[in-house]
Sequence to fold (389 residues):
Amino acid sequence: MTAIVVPDGSEFGINNLPYGIFSVPGSEKAVGVRVGDAVVDLSKSLGDSVFAQPTLNAFMARGRAWWIEARARIVELIETDAVPADAMHPLDTVSLHLPFEVADYVDFYASEHHATNLGRLFRPDSEPLLPNWKHLPVGYHGRAGTIVVSGTDITRPRGQRKAPDRPTPDFGPSLRLDIEAEMGFVVGVPSETPIGTDDFENHVFGVCIVNDWSARDIQAWEYVPLGPNLGKSFATSISPWVVPLLALEEARIATPEQVPEPLPYLRESRSWALDIELTVEWNGHEVSRPPYRTMYWSPAQMLAHCTVNGASARTGDMFASGTISGPDKNQRGAFIELTWGGKEPVTLGDQTRTFLEDGDTVAISASAPGPSGTRIGFGTVTGRITPSP
Ligand code: MN
Fold:
């Protein structure tokens, strides 16, 4: 048996306990939980085959009562120093993998500040918010098969690009490669029927950080009238740790006032808006602090909307929030907003940037309030741009 010491001020204390998939040399992938700077192998410490799996899906599918029980057993193991010695690994000795097998992926557009900024940039001659925006959480279906774990290199995509002053497109590597800082919500318990807002916590297992890489030149040409496609589908990065919804009780807040009042299926008796703070670093320089608390639509409203038409939800479905942007310039979660379409470069040490260059690295981190003044960390999602082949 071994004792785990959580460093003072750690965002990965006993109130967090995020789950991931890890491996060490010579062994199979397994479910691990992060405690401080250690990873506890749950397949060796809780004795249940659901943890001896290469994804979190089987565990997530078991449902909320079991999530609560597993969490209580993990807390007990740690508090009684009862983690088996061969189940504890220093974080820097493990490889972290994609934490769940992604079923379907929907990306929303739930930040009023982001939607307004993008409206101004993409459609300068019309109202920035389209008439549907305050009546439903607008979203599109993304490509689940290209969701990758943090640390995976991102190859610059190629495609059709049309310059505003040219009548026809040309083809080549994206010249306006961007990020979108978002949070992603992972479905554990499937459903064949609509999931009401008050049933959110019985279906959604946890939350991760998402970087929805976006090729703005490809997107701007292709997106009318059916929405983003190849400008987004080449890669989406997620953080390796899924923070359970059970760790986010202290982070629950109300959404901003919603006017007009949403239709009944989108109303919440107690909102699942969340007070999450994100940080965006570009080549190691902080460029933005997007505040999740400013999002107009809550994740429970997004899931209710996703399923209200009768569409089923599956274990491993991920729906992402859309770019998180606050009202201030240094709270914008995409570079197209931060540099206002490339007109206002940002300074990174002795360099300037408008969009991503080959070799650039972006790291997005997030944390939320926990009990007694603690913080609940989501970790970081990173990615480096490699040249188009
Ligand atoms: Mn997005």
Observations:
- The two ends are 50 Å apart (CA to CA).
